[in-house]
Design brief:
Elements lengths: L4 H18 L5 H23 L4 H6 L4 H10 L1 E2 L23 H6 L10 H4 L9 H17 L4 E2 L5
Antiparallel strand pairs: 1-2
Helix pairs in contact: 1-2, 1-7, 2-4, 2-7
Length: 157
């Protein structure tokens, strides 16, 4: 396999280390944000790879977290016919209207920085906070790891 849940976990561990020891230092927030978004990407690609997507197909998604989320939502749970869209409703921030994985990752299309280019470059980053995206990465990894082997790819004709 090309993509690994363990690698996604290492990105989270690195982001947590920065958050716990250097969160107030210049550029630490950018690094935490970058590692967190990368972890989301790797988690979703690892799950999709296990459902039958080729590495070439997964690379075609580039770093578009919203598109990966749509693709996961198009998969079905084995033997049920139900779509795997429950990832979208996983709560990252309690008691917040836009505090779900779906809202946070869908924002990649709108007003926030496009991962990774606008996170890596430039003076101004418009994105959710590094702490929120670190929490999001943990939720995405947990959901993807829990659902490995439980999803099937649905090919529409």
């Amino acid at each position: 396999m090309e993509y690994s849940f363990d690698f996604a976990r290492r990105m989270i561990d690195s982001a947590e280390c920065l958050f716990n020891s250097h969160a107030n230092k210049e550029e630490a927030g950018r690094a935490i944000l970058y590692l967190s978004c990368l972890s989301c990407e790797i988690s979703m690609k690892a799950l999709l790879e296990q459902t039958g997507y080729t590495v070439k197909e997964l690379r075609g998604f580039s770093h578009k977290l919203h598109d990966l989320l749509i693709e996961i939502s198009s998969c079905e749970y084995r033997n049920t016919g139900y779509r795997a869209s429950s990832i979208r409703s996983k709560i990252v921030i309690e008691n917040t209207a836009n505090g779900t994985v779906g809202a946070l990752l869908a924002s990649q299309v709108g007003d926030t920085s496009t991962y990774p280019n606008e996170i890596r470059y430039g003076a101004v980053i418009t994105h959710f906070s590094p702490e929120v995206m670190l929490k999001c990465a943990k939720v995405v990894l947990r959901w993807c790891a829990e659902n490995q082997g439980n999803l099937i790819r649905v090919i529409s004709l």
